[in-house]
Amino acid sequence: MDEQLEQKRKREREYYHKNKARILENRKKPERLLVKRAIDKRYCDKNREKRKENCRKWYHNNKDKPGYREASSARSKKHYRENLEHAKILRRKRYEKNKPAILEQTKAYAKKHRAHLYQKGKEWRARNRDSILKKEAAYREKHRQQFLEWKRKWRERNPRASAEYYRKNKAILAEKERIWRQNNRARCCEKGARRRAKLRNQTPKNANKKLIMAFYYAAQRISACTKIPFHVDHHIPIDKGGLHHQGNLRILTASANCRKRNKVPA
Questions:
Q1: Whole-angstrom Cα distance, residue 241 to residue 243?
Q2: Residues 239 and 192 occupy one common structural domain
Q3: Domain total of the chain
């Protein structure tokens, strides 16, 4: 019986090697793939335990062979890359089907290997520091309002931790703020003017923030080009009832703006 089976397998191998190109070409046809997958699925469902037992036996018989683990890992990675979308679908289905058990298993593993996972995460972050910082910056820029709201709520919930963090990093935070102000002078000027106007309820609803910011950016560019400091002036000063509105703004040299002070033009 064993001899007949061996001869049959030998004939199959010889036929396969002789007609390998045609067999592989036929396998790529969509209808053949669908039929093959259906047959494979039926066979797997019918012989699941038998296949698992065969895999275990084969693994125990071959695991000590030199180069086995590397070759097995390479085959698995190659198969995963070639069938990435299908693998994602299968993984999602398995997760949805066994969600409570998987979560419990993951939690238990994380608790048991906490130090190891922390060290691996630390090494990974060190290797990918630049890409991580770039992604975090892009995420913060995209979700700026949500991020600022989250920070505000966190400070309200943790006033002691927030004060302690500020105390420990006071010099670093001050330096960061100085650099930011130096690189964003126009935004600082506009923000200060908007804050003063808001305190006096002098920013109308029809004020266009983009046009207002354009004045401050233009003053910054002119100052950089001419090497002469320029300011954005409120034609009618805020102290005298003027509005923080694009129609009430103009660009003056710093000396002219300082001479004008808060006088109302004649």
A1: 7
A2: yes
A3: 2
